[in-house]
């Protein structure tokens, strides 16, 4: 599979550290230079940066080319919306990990939004990527309690601890079924 990242890459690191016969990472692609790319390079995994362009359609086409022909694509902290050209090629075998219990708090500020709403339980969701923003079919979820005194950073860090385990669990359960992924958890 190919992993898409935009930032720290701590989820990617856990994915790399737990590779076994059930999955292998063949490439890591990012929209900018980031720690995730450095982590991949340090692990000897091929990397490519496809810098975000004004023309989103063209950028999506370049992203498709960079990703190549894997069985699956995992968006692990990739902070860009995947467009039509990308989904035409990879829908059904692209999954995303999101730091909230979808369908609550989609988007780029899920942890902040959940705190602002005052929820007492939030968590982690792994889902298929479709044309909406975090709207694809849910594969797996785990709850995380909000604690008194939590701020965005402390809550996000506890969610990430759960996310790192959950994404590996999902990847280990994933099977290639034609052009799609079948994941039975
Ligand atoms: C994770 O919490 C992931 O769910 C989130 O970015 C973080 C990446 O952490 N993704 C989104 O919010 C996508 N909307 P990392 O860079 O340390 O792996």
What does this structure look like?
- This protein has 185 residues and is α/β, with parallel strands linked by helices.
- The protein has one domain (2-183): 3-Layer(aba) Sandwich (Rossmann fold), CATH 3.40.50.
- It has helices at residues 10-17, 35-42, 56-67, 84-90, 110-117, 152-173, and strands spanning 2-5, 27-30, 47-49, 73-75, 94-98, 121-128, 138-145, 174-177, 180-183.
- Helix 1 runs parallel beside helix 6 (152-173) and helix 3 runs parallel beside helix 4 (84-90).
- It is globular.
- The model has no long low-confidence stretch (mean pLDDT 97).
- It binds glycinamide ribonucleotide.
- Belongs to the GART family.
Question: What is the spatial order of strands in the main beta sheet?
Answer: 3-2-1-4-5-6-7
Spatial shape? globular
Kindly estimate the percentage of residues that lie in beta strands according to DSSP: 15-25%
**CA distance, first residue to last residue:** 19 Å
Alpha carbon gyration radius:
16 Å
Largest sheet features:
7 strands, mixed
Number of helices: 6
Helix content: 25-40%
Task: Name the CATH class.
Answer: Alpha Beta
The CATH topology is what? Rossmann fold
CATH architecture, by name, is 3-Layer(aba) Sandwich
Low-confidence stretches: none
User: Which cofactor or ligand species appear?
Assistant: glycinamide ribonucleotide
Strand elements, count: 9
Determine the structural class based on helices, strands and strand pairing: alpha/beta
Average pLDDT, all residues? 97
The topology string of helices and strands comes to EHEHEHEHEHEEHEE
CATH homologous superfamily assignment: Formyl transferase, N-terminal domain
Number of domains: 1
InterPro entries: Formyl_transf_N, Formyl_transf_N_sf, GART, GART_AS
GO biological process, one term: 'de novo' IMP biosynthetic process
GO cellular component, one term: cytosol
Function: Catalyzes the transfer of a formyl group from 10-formyltetrahydrofolate to 5-phospho-ribosyl-glycinamide (GAR), producing 5-phospho-ribosyl-N-formylglycinamide (FGAR) and tetrahydrofolate.
């Amino acid at each position: 599979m190919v992993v898409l990242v935009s930032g720290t890459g701590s989820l990617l690191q856990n994915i790399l550290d737990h590779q076994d016969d059930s999955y292998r990472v063949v490439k890591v692609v990012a929209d900018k230079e980031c720690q995730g790319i450095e982590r991949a390079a340090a692990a000897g995994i091929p990397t490519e940066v496809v810098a975000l362009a004004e023309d989103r359609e063209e950028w999506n086409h370049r992203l498709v080319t960079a990703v190549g022909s894997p069985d699956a694509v995992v968006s692990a902290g990739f902070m860009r919306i995947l467009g039509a050209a990308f989904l035409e090629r990879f829908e059904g075998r692209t999954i995303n990990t999101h730091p909230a219990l979808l369908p609550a708090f989609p988007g780029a500020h899920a942890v902040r939004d959940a705190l602002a709403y005052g929820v007492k339980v939030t968590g982690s969701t792994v889902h298929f990527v479709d044309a909406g923003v975090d709207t694809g079919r849910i594969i797996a979820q785990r709850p995380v309690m909000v604690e008194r005194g939590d701020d965005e950073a402390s809550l996000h860090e506890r969610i990430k601890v759960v996310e790192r385990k959950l994404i590996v669990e999902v990847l280990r359960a994933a099977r290639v079924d034609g052009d799609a992924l079948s994941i039975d958890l």
